[in-house]
UniProtKB/TrEMBL annotation:
Its cofactor is heme. InterPro entries: SQR/QFR_C/D (IPR034804), Succ_DH_anchor (IPR014312), SuccDH_FuR_B_TM-su (IPR000701). This is Succinate dehydrogenase hydrophobic membrane anchor subunit. The keyword Heme applies. Part of an enzyme complex containing four subunits: a flavoprotein, an iron-sulfur protein, plus two membrane-anchoring proteins, SdhC and SdhD. GO terms for molecular function: heme binding; metal ion binding. The gene is sdhD. It is found in: Membrane.
Amino acid sequence: MDRSVISDPKSHYGSGKLATRHFITQRLTGALNILFTIFFIWLVVSLAGAERAEMLAVVGNPFVAILSALLVVNVCVHMRIGMQEVIEDYVVEPRLHSLTMLLNNLFCLAIALIGVIAIAKIAIWG
């Protein structure tokens, strides 16, 4: 970027409100990831050595299934914002920037959907 554009205080770099929302969302999802990680570690440790039927019963519990689905969604939101920051910082060509942002959003959406559908399948059909 041209130095004169950067030094001009009237230059527009993007929405300050959007950047603040991303900052707060990134920190909030990061904090929630800590709590979800504690839950996930408890779940894995409690299921260590269990039979398949017992595992399906535990994951099929609505409380565990909902928390697991929220974990997947939270991680995907956190991942999307983190990758968006990397793309904004390092991809400068406009067409490539738009493409990588689209691919980032689609990838995170696909991972979230696959994860939630897998958890729902286990919870509903065993």
